[in-house]
Design a protein that fits this description.
Length: 332
């Protein structure tokens, strides 16, 4: 029997059992309360049988209606959560860049996203390749960027900046290879001719590097040609997430961060991250380093740089982690 049928059968059995429990409760209540009421009304502790039956029916009707109303209320919340992604609206953040902030009710998730028009002549991709750790907000602030997100996994975890750090995966900045490929993982690649791709780092050879302008490694591709990858379907752990996506024509780059390890936002699985990327317009997507590293920093019109989400480093909400290479956007 399909899992869905098993679930419905279980629900039916549970509902039958619940109805029996309610019926018994009504019977006990009637047997206990009606004689007392009869005495007060001068009926000698006895109600006429017909009146007793009618009151029983009224008790049962009350409990049944109360149950249905409760179920209807729960359904309304569920429907709201399903609509929350579509109800979120893109807003212009800067030339060629749109901003989106939304939340889901079930699972409880808060997320932030950017949509970058790579065809705009005002947009420039910037990749950091420093050998020293830095927070995403510092990367944005010190390089005069409009936005930045963490990307690669790395081998040292600390909130202290300026520490020696090793990128785990490929980093190419302005055509220069700064960190070698790691064949276990995938990468987001920007070619010199304007093409973009998400591909296995094992496919990036010494000859193909000549065609690449910028590239950042991540973990794995979770969205492929508009479909969740097998890995995304099977990955269950829930964490804060950073991810990037590309539209089907490669025109738009999407940057996404999801809060986690908090009461207000419990984090996402790889499958949920892929689904969210798809819902905001991505056709292909990659999962970046996540957990306490997840951060999306923005430069606001007044020049201030702030992290849009709430990072959680060492279980401390709001404490930003110093990370390895980041992906940034500059307005020329």
């Amino acid at each position: 029997m399909p899992v869905s049928c098993l679930r419905e059968t279980a629900k039916a059995k549970a509902n039958t059992k619940n109805l029996q429990v309610i019926t018994n409760m009504v019977k006990v209540a009637a047997e206990t309360c009606l004689p007392r009421l009869g005495k007060k009304l001068g009926l000698g502790g006895h109600f006429p049988q017909r009146l007793t039956t009618q009151i029983n029916y009224l008790f049962l009707l009350f409990f049944t209606l109360n149950t249905f109303i409760s179920c209807a209320t729960a359904s309304t919340v569920s429907n709201t959560s399903e609509l929350s992604v579509s109800e979120a609206r893109w807003q212009q953040f800067a030339d060629g860049i749109d901003y989106l902030h939304g939340r889901l009710a079930s699972p409880k998730i808060k997320y932030w996203a950017l949509r970058i028009d790579l065809s705009s002549p005002a947009i420039e991709i910037v990749v950091s390749g420093e050998a020293l750790s830095a927070k995403v907000s510092s990367f944005v602030r010190e390089n005069n960027l409009i936005a930045g997100i963490n990307a690669l996994p790395f081998d040292v975890v600390s909130s202290t900046e300026g520490q020696p750090i090793k990128n785990v995966g490929i980093v190419i900045s302005q055509g220069k290879l700064l960190s070698p490929a790691n064949s276990r993982y995938d990468a987001l690649v920007f070619y010199k001719d304007g093409r973009t791709a998400i591909l296995s780092q094992a496919l990036i050879t010494s000859s193909s590097i000549e065609e690449i302008k910028n590239a950042v490694g991540g973990f794995h591709q979770i969205l492929l040609e508009g479909e969740l990858t097998e890995r995304a379907h099977n990955s269950e752990p829930r964490h804060p997430r950073s991810a990037a996506g590309l539209s089907a024509d490669g025109r738009y780059l999407y940057l996404l961060v999801i809060d986690g390890r908090q009461t207000a936002s419990i984090g996402a699985t790889e499958g949920e991250t892929a689904s969210l990327l798809l819902s905001i317009g991505s056709h292909n997507g990659i999962n970046f380093d996540g957990g306490g590293s997840s951060a999306l920093a923005l430069r606001f019109p007044d020049g201030s740089v702030k992290v849009a989400n709430t990072p959680v480093h060492k279980t401390i909400p709001g404490q930003e982690r110093a990370v390895a290479s980041c992906l940034g956007i500059r307005i020329k």
